[in-house]
Write a structure and sequence with these properties.
CATH superfamily: Transferase(Phosphotransferase) domain 1
Number of domains: 1
Strand order of the largest sheet: 1-2-3-5-4
Number of strands: 12
Shape: globular
CATH class: Mainly Alpha
Number of helices: 6
Structural class: alpha+beta
Largest sheet: 5 strands, antiparallel
CATH architecture: Orthogonal Bundle
Radius of gyration: 20 Å
Strand content: 15-25%
Helix content: 25-40%
């Protein structure tokens, strides 16, 4: 009589820090002298080795399910990159079997501001300007939150001439879409996956209004984070 092993097979270990061979050997990256060193977001976003001087590159491997659309969003934004209101992070899109986006490493926005209210408001103004620029092009970002807002520090600008110290940049257009109609006209659409949980269990939303709703929560999160930081820095504890 045949017997079976009742013990469950162990789950294979997944190495979150492993660099995919296809990315290490990618001819377009090699042509540019770019060699990824470690993951920033496993399976998707990687960075080159950190050196005392010179640029540090970030390489994002666009997802097969959304990559072509995300690359198209970058192309549309590039057509208007000469506008002073464009806050797209400097980048190069490499179109291949799995599209890649190569960009300079840029810190989270909180590293480029001080505890002063004027500094925080100036950053908010830049974020609003960047989102408004996208909305004029009938593009909704779809996933506005602190991880997708970065800003160049003095050091970052010294490393890469494409960056401007103190300038805020928007990243991650995986959930972005360009619509037939713009703000105030476009009707509701199914909400994409995002960092923000929709209110009242809603599953559809005007995409431009959704960006504004996410902006409000993002501003709140930034203020709370800086307030906690200023309290920790206070001599009164």
């Amino acid at each position: 009589m045949a017997t079976t092993n009742s013990a469950a097979e162990p789950e294979p270990d997944i190495d979150m820090g492993k660099l995919p061979d296809w990315l290490l050997d990618h001819p377009e990256l090699r042509k540019r002298g770019i060699v990824v060193h470690e993951p920033l977001q496993p399976f998707t976003v990687y960075q080159t080795e950190w050196h005392p001087e010179g640029p540090i590159h970030v390489v994002k491997a666009l997802k097969p399910s959304t990559g072509r659309r995300e690359a198209d969003i970058y192309d549309e934004l590039d057509r208007h990159s000469d506008s002073r209101t464009d806050h797209t992070v400097p980048h190069e899109v490499i179109r291949c079997e799995r599209p890649l986006v190569v960009m300079p490493f840029v810190c989270g926005a909180e590293h480029a501001i001080t505890y002063k209210t004027s500094s925080i408001l100036a950053m908010f103004d830049q974020i609003l300007e960047g989102v408004e620029h996208m909305h004029r092009l009938r593009i909704a970002h779809g996933d506005i939150f602190t991880p997708n807002i970065v800003a160049a520090t003095e050091e970052g600008a010294m490393r890469d001439a494409r960056l401007t110290a103190g300038r805020v940049y928007l990243i991650d257009f995986e959930s972005s879409r360009q619509f037939e109609h713009g703000p105030g006209v476009q009707t509701g659409v199914p909400l994409p996956d995002s960092h923000v949980i929709p209110p009242l269990g809603m599953t559809t939303f005007d995409p431009f209004s959704w960006d504004v709703y996410c902006l409000g929560l993002t501003f709140e999160a930034i203020v709370e984070r800086r307030h906690r930081g200023s309290q920790c820095a206070s001599p009164d504890g």
